[in-house]
What does this fold into?
Amino acid sequence: MPFFIGWIVLILFSLSLQETGSAKLSERPIAITLADEQTGWAVGSVKTGGVVKNPADSSSVNVIGKQNVYKTMLLKTTNGGQSWFLQTVLQSADEQIEIRALFALDAQHCWVVATKVFTDKTFILATGDGQTWKAMNFTEDVTPKQILFTDALNGWMIGSALAQADQLFRTNDGGRSWKPYSTGFQGTFHGLRFSGNKGYLLANLVSSPENLTILKTLDGGDIWIAALEVKADAGSNLIGMDLHMNHDTVYATAKSINEDSDEYGNSMLITSSDGFASSQTHRVTYEKDTKVNETLLGNLSVRSGQLTGVDLAPSDYFVSAAGEFASYNLITSADEGKTWTKIAEFNKSVYHFMLVSESTALCSSGDGEIFYSANNGRNWTLSPIDFRNYFLKPPSAALQAQADGMDSDALAYGDEWDELAHDTTYSSRWESADDSLLALNFSKNVDVTKYKADISKKFSVGIDTVASTVIVFNKRIRRGAKHETWDLIKEEARTGEIKIRKYKTLRFAGQVHAIDGKRPIKYSWSSSINGELSDQLSFTTHPRQLFPGTHFIFFKAMDESGQWSNPVVVKVIVEDFPKYKFPFHGTWTAGGGGSYYNKGWHIRGIRYALDLNNAEANEGSDSDYGLPVRASTDGVVAFAGYMRGYGRTVKIDYMYGGHKYTTLVSHLATISVEVGETVKQGQELGTCGSTGRSSAPHVHWELRVDDMCEAPEPVFENDSTVVQTVYNGGTFDSDNFYQPSHIVVVDEPKIPNTWFETRGYYHGYRWVNVTKSLKTVEVKWKPKLPRSGDYKVQVHIAKKFATAMATYEVHSKNGVQSVKVNQNKFTDEWVTLGTYAFDADDDVYVYASNATGQNKGTIAFDAVRFIGQWEREQVGLTK
It folds into this structure.
């Protein structure tokens, strides 16, 4: 057949095999990955167990039966899969989550690729400590099939799209950003494996879709070659399934299908121990007295020369009261796949199987369960999952006791208890299950009068205001915004919920209604806000900070007889937000610099922006000029150049909570970074200036989320303090400083017989008239290098009094090299002299003089920097 048509048919065959092999038979699959023989993760639709209440009885204790509830969860094991515990819940409300791929690098690093079915949005969850997880967007228009990392930063992904060739993607920042990568081959990719710099890719190529091709790389993936092509029999298609590595041996599984075969066909195993200089191909067969004669080898595991896998072609079908099921055989080979024997039979669908050690194994079913075997899969027990402490709304003690009596492993909750949340996002504490149920029902009432005291009762409480200082868009000031104290109860009436940003404080004010001799003797706050006691009829709490998550702030009062009033409950959602530092070190002032805080015309309707001046300088004076402007957070340089209106600008991007955050600093005099570099919080991005539409030196700072200029107000943090509100004219201290060890900056020394000019790098520079041959001024820049090695040498050329053809001498390990620089062509820029080898113990330096061979002109002497090149991927300015 023509190769294009054959390739399309191949894709359809491949999709059919994927469904037949596992997903189609697994309505609630769980995928498993192991970092070692003890630590691993599982993610998928997990069966939680549960109980069902009698609808005819309102009592939450009357249980009539059990009901399985499934949630998409991420589980972890630290004992090789014998037991599991919940780390986080991915599914919210009715949103369906499909798990695409997962990979564990070690006990600290794991990645999960998932898609929200309703919105078709793919995201990546990643952990760097084995405990906390962060979400990152994946915006490429493909369906991920496999994810793999060779270290904590560098990873690969295979993505597929219907009727198109599969595509590879690479990342070098831990999965925050991905770029398409071409191997030079097009086709369907079935499996990717790496061991050091050696890598193998299993493929059916567009050029010969009926044959199986194994691609190979020896340099970490930069160059790929076709290492082996296994030709299909006449009239057949040899479709790749998966790829495995055990030390130097590579195992590839494939499926041979011809026009006369039935649904499954014949499995093939290709092995090689010398990089496919030679290989062996074996057909997977064993004694199988079943209705299905073919073999479909999947979930292959290799341990000490023992091959074990699941025959995904059903061995039998049977019908029970619960529905139709199929059984599957577990098979093994002790001679590198030449012969196979049956170990055991599964009487339920198998989604994932793997050997953990030489004697233990794990298996997940299609019904949200994980099984453990201590004898290589011959016998299986259900692995317990501990997620009782992670339920958002705890069950009553009576309901729990009755469920425990039914089944010690059952997790008891009724219709009111089917929502889950990770414990780190929920901090409220309840005095009883009745209080929590009351709080939930109270929050569903949208009438804001519910917060008022009930005057029909002799003793009741009410909350008048829940206030917080927030930034609001001021319609009276065009393109402006300001801080106001906002009554969040009014906000709930407008939006249906109260939301505040992390670190914002709350202040509650209310009153107690008491008649007929009633009086309060104490109040109680039941939440992460600490309780306060009082005997006053009106009360105001001190401002409190809440952790990110959902809080039910529960208030009630006790009368003199010891009876509590009905509580009033305020539901507050605290939104998480990245940690930022001011883009400077030292003391600076908001506002000034020729424009007004949040009202400058150049802000272009942005909801939040800042203009900043150094507090030690006179507002708008030249003493700001040349001071370092620093990164507010870690990230990648997305833009470094000139923007209309903004002047010289640097943008830093990074992902947080599934969103892209961008910080921008502009009006810079000098830019010190390049696009694509990874920078650390506190690292220099450039220097303060007045480029673009600016009347005096200052720093303009902006925050954007997902490229939209309507970001919420940021939180500026120091290591020990949090700045709650930034206001015009306010003075703020910042400890934001980081100096990469491989970057050494040497400012110009004190030079006799020269003039000083303020607008240079870090407060100023020196200049003098040139001479034709007589050296009246000589300058040396001597660095204290951290180590010997190659360094890129750059000189800073100032804006004024820099017109000469300067000659710089670089005294390095290899002698003296002279480099001429026409200073007249550069304005506040770093100019590279070259890369040189330096011995840290030698007398190394850069030299210049005013003897330029010219009759007129001026030469400027400013800073010189040395950038270590010994680590090409090092954070900072190296490339």
In short: The chain has four helices and 63 strands. The CA atoms of residues 631 and 833 lie 26 Å apart. The first strand starts at residue 30 and ends at 34. The mean pLDDT is 76.
